[in-house]
Amino acid sequence: MPTPREQLEVRCLEDKENLPECVQKTNVHKRKREPLQPTGSISDHYPKKAFATQKEFYSMSNRPLGYCLIINNYNFERTSLGNRRGTDKDKDDLTRVFENMFFKVEVQDDLQASDMQNVIKELAERDHSQMDAFVCCILSHGEKGSVLGIDGKPVPIRELTQPFAECHTLVNKPKLFFIQACQGNEAQQGVWMADGQENTREEGTFEKVSHTAATHGVPKDADFLIGIATVEHYKSFRCTKHGSIYIQELCKQLESGLHWKEDIHSILTMVNRIVSSKILQGCKQMPEVHYTLTKTLVLPMKQAS
User: What does the record list as coiled-coil region(s) (predicted)?
Assistant: First the structure.
């Protein structure tokens, strides 16, 4: 009679013979593991926009492209601030550059504070529906958050920009402001730099600043860009012969950068870098840019004939 062990071996053998053929031939201990195959690519599960930078550009197809207002305040004889010699060079260069960018340029000279507000209000009430942008350049003395009329009275930057935020025909269109004026009465000091980093010396005079500084900021509305010659609390620099350092560099970089189809942010970054590298009567100047642009802005430029 078989032992219990022998009986168990016979029973196991019989069970194996009764298994399906496909199971009998499978050796689970020797089978190779196959790598898991994905059921689809990552891009099948996520929107394509998550994997590519989608640049949107402001339309710049209308001609004229828009209005460019230049307020040029030179004559401050009725105040203690002094006349702004050299400002006409800035005015002429800005006029040339923005006309070459297809803007319709309008120049207003020597405006009192109330006149500046009236000119701004009138222009904001115009129909801009057949235009793609608006530019305002203000050349004057200034103080923290404001620019001055030739009567020495301050106009907050906010009051100059707000009418255009409320202009329905400029909705979703870029509104650019470039301001050459002091934003305080301090002079920026330079810092030590590593060997090989060069500075450029310039001679000239600082813009004058009023001492009744108000604190008004720049707009937070969409599609604005505010370029200011200097950061808050500090003076800006103007050469009495060749114009202001900031405006002259702005004109130069607009002409060269737009020729290569660079966007406005890249151009103004270059302006900041070059202006801040100069030594101005032993001091420095750091321009500032505030913007709420919602698209990439590349302005057109006429090709040189």
Answer: none
* pLDDT of the residue at 226: 97
Quick one: tokens of 54? Answer: 């989608």
Q: Which two tokens stand for residue 28?
A: 């689970």
203 vs 252 pLDDT, higher one: 252
186, 231 contact by CB (below 8 A): no
Residue with more model confidence, 14 or 78: 78
Which run of H or of E encompasses 67?
strand 66-72
Distance CA 81, CA 64 (A): 37
Tell me the pLDDT tens digit for each residue of 216-239. 444 558 999 999 997 654 555 546
Q: What is the pLDDT of residue 285?
A: 80
Q: Is the peptide bond before 64 cis (omega within 30 degrees of 0)?
A: yes
Among residues 93, 143, 112, 131, which one has the least CA distance to residue 247? 93
Residue with tokens 């020797």: 30
Q: Hey, what CATH class is 66-187+196-291 in?
A: alpha beta
Supply the DSSP string of 104-128, one letter for each residue: EEEEEES--HHHHHHHHHHHHTS--
Q: Where are the beta strands (DSSP E) in 160-287?
A: 175-180, 200-202, 205-206, 224-228, 237-239, 243-244, 278-280
Which residue numbers are catalytic?
141, 182
| pLDDT at residue 284 is higher than 80 | no
Helix (H, G, I), strand (E, B) or coil at 298: coil
The sign one gets for the Cα dihedral 15, 19, 25, 31 is negative
- Tell me: pLDDT of 166 over 60: yes
- If we measure between CA atoms, which residue out of 129, 175, 135, 140 comes closest to residue 292? 175
pTM value? Answer: 0.73
Query: Quick one: pLDDT at residue 58?
Result: 98
CA atoms within 13 A on the CB side of 63: 7
CB 263 within 8 A of CB 174: no
